[in-house]
## 1
Amino acid sequence: MIKPLAVDIQNLTKTTLVSSAAIRRWARAAFGARGAGASLVIRFVGAAEGRRLNLLWRSRDYATNVLSFPPLVVPEPPSAARATRRSKELRLVGDLVLCAPVVAREAKEQDKPIADHYAHLIVHGCLHLQGYDHEHDVDALRMERRERRLLKMFGIDDPYRSQ
């Protein structure tokens, strides 16, 4: 039996966030069948950690709302690859890091429920881990359409409507 996407939630902030069950539902919906038998880490951090990670990995000196980190691909010897396939280990699809103070500020500025904003950013980050991006207009439209469809499943308004 194939297990659904396993989601490891790590809250390094002192704030209570949205429910773990909701976080898992959003991530599993974003991955769909691609998440079966896989694992994802979602980490919630404060502003200092968010800024440090954004500077380190994107050379941008500010805390951003969400960062997506695909798993590192390290070549394995053939025997290790066979052993991994036989084991019950879940394959890692990546890590998401959400900066809680930035998400809270943005939700307030955009006059939207914080849970809706978290849902959007988790879906957005999960799509990045699957290869979606928004560097070019056509890619951005494709990604935004997918986000809208997923969020609608949860009764969440179009996050791009007012932007």
## 2
Amino acid sequence: MTDLTTLELSAFTPLVGETFRVKVESGEMDLVLHEANALGMAVREGGAFSLIFLNSEEEQLAQQLFTLHHPALGDLQLLLVPLGPLGEAMAYEAVFT
């Protein structure tokens, strides 16, 4: 599992538009990294930032911890918060502070 305390926004910005696999009860589904945004001040060394993921599948995710996988980053355990529909997809946010 990747150490989230060492991750910085720069690890995610080149991955915008790429697919992350998320483990769900029914198996796996795809989430596309739609945005990677800097946030203000942070206590964490890597700075504060948020990630917005989109899911166009029928199944919607509840707010909880999920394990996401990307070949460049490995497995990440992130708290995903549903934001609501964005176009034809459902948006989820993970915040690093």
